[in-house]
Every structure is written in C-alpha cells, then in structure tokens.
Amino acid sequence: MFPFRNILFPTDFSTHSRAALKYAAAFARHGRGRVLLLNVQDTKVPANLSSQLKDLLSDPLLTGVDTEQVLVEGEPRVEIAREAVDHDVDLITVVMRERNRLSRAFGASIAEEIVAESPCAVLAIRPSQRDFIEYRGGETNIRLKRVLLATNFRPSSVAATHLATQISNQFGAELHAVYIIGDYFDQISALFPEGGLAALTRLRSYVQERMGQLSRTDGAAATTHITEGRPYQEIVKLAATLDADLIVIGTAVHGSLFGNSQVLGSEIERVIRNAPCPVLCVPAARVVTPLPALVTQAVPQT
C-alpha cells in the first residue's frame, strides 16, 4: 500500500486546485513513481486547454518527476474513479473548496464525490491547513511528525490502520490512534437504563483492550486515545491538540437514496471539512447499513 507510486492529480488548472500538486509531487518523488495530471471536461473543451497544460507541466514542483497527461470528457467523479482503476493509481490528491450552508444542504462537492467513489486512498486538502510538505531549494520533502488514526475496529478501518502504520514507520512519525465512543450511547442508556449502561460498560472495556493490542502491533508503538462524544468533533479536537500533520480514516460509503452514486457518512464529511490538517481517506468494502458492528479480527480487503 505504501510508498505510493502512481499518484493521480485531478485539476481544472485553477490556482485553487494546484494546492494539491505539491503533495502529489512529493509522494511521487518519495515512491520513485509518477504523477498523472488529469483534466476532465464535462462541457465544451476550452480553446486555451493546451496552454494551460503546458503551464502546469512547467511548474517547478514537477521538475525531475515522471509525469503523464490524461484528458477525458465526462462526469468528473466517474471519470476520475475510472482513470484511477485504469492506471493502477495508489493515491489521489484533491483540494476541498469552501461551501456555504445552501450548497452543503443540497449535496456533496466534487471533492467529496471523488472520495466516495475512489477505489484507492484520497488525500483531501484545504489550503489553510497545517502543511507537511516542505518545498525548498527546488525540492519537495515530506515532513511528517505526528499521524492520527481514527479507528472503530470495523472492517472499514482495517486498511486505514495498516496504511497509517506503514506511513508512520516510513517517516519515523509518532502514531496516535483514537477511538470515539459516540454520544448515541448516552441516548441508549437513557432509554434502557440497565441494558444501556451495561452495554456501554462492556464497550469501554472492549475498546481499552483492543487499543492496547493496537499499540503493540505492526512494529509501531502507537499512543492510544479513547474519548466520548460526537466522533468528528473529537477527532478534529484531538488533531488540533496534538498538532497532527495527517489524519488517516477509513471511508466506507453508502448508496445514495437519490440515485446510484455513493455518499460518505456525515461524520467523515465533517472530519474532512473541519480538520486542521490534511485527511487521508482510505476506502474499504461498501457497506449496506450504518449500524455499528465491532469486529475482533482483521477482515480481508477486496
């Protein structure tokens, strides 16, 4: 899974989208791989497309990096996922755009759709976040000091756990793992005082045991955190407290009620939108239920 060798950089040639280019270039250099520059046109091809592409290729960030240009027509989220499969892509780098309340109410952004549809890991970036790429002397370097893994021990977090461990080992970064006992358990306890409290007590004990096992596996000494509350809020808060450089999270998705597209869970969307650092979204098998399901062993990924 790591190092990443084939990195897909979707771009509309805007200054905003280029914020993800240095991440693509840095991981390509580190993995001795390549960057695929992808532009998807869903309308008439602009007359200045060739000049825009030439300008992008001349960016100093790509000096000495193997690159390939891919120009296609279609719906961005569909074509990006297709190109990721066709080119055996390991990582996609995308930039999140700020959205107002109305746009959030009526659907996901293109970047969120890419995360939901992607067959590989996606690094979601917001320009105002903590930056772990250093560009100096014509070279890009990855400076990772602290990696925060958000886990829930479900099948959707297995691949994310492996990848977070590999990345922290590779760069000598601190690995922190957090499990959030969701605030919905408080509601269960209020409705069913005996059963709810007993279930919550058993869950706390189970989580402590599992997190203890995580700190001793895969060659990395993880620092573990167990909190209670709203998952996305606790993840974002802990990332800020730790000055984390990267959040790694499993992104199992669900079928949309309004069509055939895939959608992220609301907590994952909020982590991506509010995180103080880039978020590495690692896909897992599609799920058909939002109900929690604890697992006690690794589940093979397909």
Please give the largest β-sheet. 10 strands, mixed
Total tally of structural domains? 2
What's the shape? elongated
- Helix count? 10
Poorly predicted runs are: 100-107, 255-260, 286-302
Q: End-to-end span in angstroms?
A: 13 Å
Q: For this structure, what is the CATH homologous superfamily of the largest domain?
A: HUPs
Query: Average pLDDT, to the nearest integer?
Result: 82
Indicate the proportion of strand residues.
Answer: 15-25%
CATH domain class of the largest domain: Alpha Beta
SSE sequence, one letter per element = EHEHEHEHHEEEEHEHHEHEEEHE
Radius of gyration: 20 Å
Query: How many beta-strand runs?
Result: 14
- Helicity range of the residues? 25-40%
